[in-house]
Amino acid sequence: MTDIAIKSIEVDEILNLIEKRDPGQEEFKQAVKEVMESVVPFIKNHKKYENSGLLQRLIEPERAVIFRVPWLDDQGSTRVNRGFRVQFNSALGPYKGGLRFHPSVNLSVVKFLAFEQIFKNSLTGLPLGGGKGGSDFNPRGKSDGEIMRFCQSFMNELYRFISSDKDVPAGDIGVGEREIGYLFGQYKRLTSEFEGAITGKGIAYGGSKMRTQATGYGLLYFVDEVMKSRSESVEGKSIVISGSGNVAQYACEKAVQLGGKVVCMSDSDGYIYDESGIDEEKLEFIKELKNVQRGRIKEYAEKYNVPFSEGTPWEIPCDIALPCATQNEIDQNSAEAIVDNGVICLAEGANMPCTDGALEILQNSNVLYAPGKATNAGGVAVSGLEMSQNSKGISLEAEEVDRKLREIMKTIHDKCTEYGETDNGTDYLKGANIAAFIKVADAMLAQGAV
Ligand code: NDP
Ligand code: 2IT
Fold this sequence. Notes:
single chain, 450 residues, alpha/beta, Rossmann fold, seven-stranded mixed β-sheet, five-stranded mixed β-sheet, 16% strand, binds NADPH dihydro-nicotinamide-adenine-dinucleotide phosphate, binds (2Z)-2-iminopentanedioic acid
């Protein structure tokens, strides 16, 4: 059962193999399918990638750990969550990728995120392997003390598997600067080492300037390139953003700086619609509301007297759609609404926000669809810059990091164009998958069957 060979390289056969080994890992299978639909036809014309068990190795994590995370709540009761770290592929460098704390986290979710990360990190051009981790812990409604005790307990197990040149975690959903601080503090205590084993740290203790902004800003730098390729720009365009966390906030900030009009942001309760646009001052209110008070987006509607609705915002007419919340937040109905509304560009701030069915609709439409592994790579790219600053003991200025981020996003856009050329213009998904695959595959072949 375990030494099954892929006899003919077909997408279905790869998916069957996953289903046999790991039944029910739907998110993981979905992420693999998205990549393989581009890569399999490419391999058929590039035979050197056909052998050496390359695809079998690519879909099997090098290592996956699952651990118990016991912690004390404020009432003195012991609670138990499950922790994960999937070290998927180290062909290009140390495993690198965020930690997610959300009740929906399970092995399938962590594997899909880690698998995506391999290709995303390849696109950045930096020496980074792919990994991801997290827990089914729900930070919502927890006190600072509970968050700290949870993070410390999580690190009591995780520290064995990470270090600056082995595996370098960072943030993701539910893990921001506060959590990174607690995780880093505990890592330092357990190892007696002050080293860059985590990125997204506070600037006072080794964090890179611009890491907080990087994913959202990078997304808009990419969108800017997409629009330019159609002799268009972000200026004057109406924009719908889902989510109101780290990625959404800084996507909004850069969109406003580029002259766009952001009319919507959301959270898991619903979305606000502000026809007059979320300006800098209103965005400051959202940042304070979300990052300090840990409130709900509904409070924006009350403060600025705009409508709040439950559900997802994809029926709102706009020019640019930026899903920045979570996986599978855009289903087929939403994708149809997006196409019918004449959206010019949909670029993913979140990881895998479109269902398989939604993707098919978008790919067969005029919407310029740009996948997360390309468009949200700015975060991990600046994490990579944080790693090199830490190892050299230096701290770059914000302008310098921002310039490098912009350059990296432009290079990723160019790679998508180079490898995603079709008769109907650029297929960004195909371009991103193939450009990312070639680099990882070449490194794996060069390193032998490991
Ligand atoms: P945050 O925790 O800062 O924010 C997450 C936002 O998404 C919140 O508004 C949250 O609402 C919403 N959300 C989460 N789960 C759901 C759900 N099931 N349904 C509806 N809304 C939901 O996370 P980030 O901004 O860091 O991450 C957002 C996305 O971007 C994720 O997909 C992440 O993987 C991806 N990403 C993040 C990077 C980073 O650097 N942080 C880098 C690249 C990608 P609520 O508060 O109600 O839960
Ligand atoms: O999905 C992602 O790329 C992240 N959550 C950021 C990973 C990182 O290591 O900065």
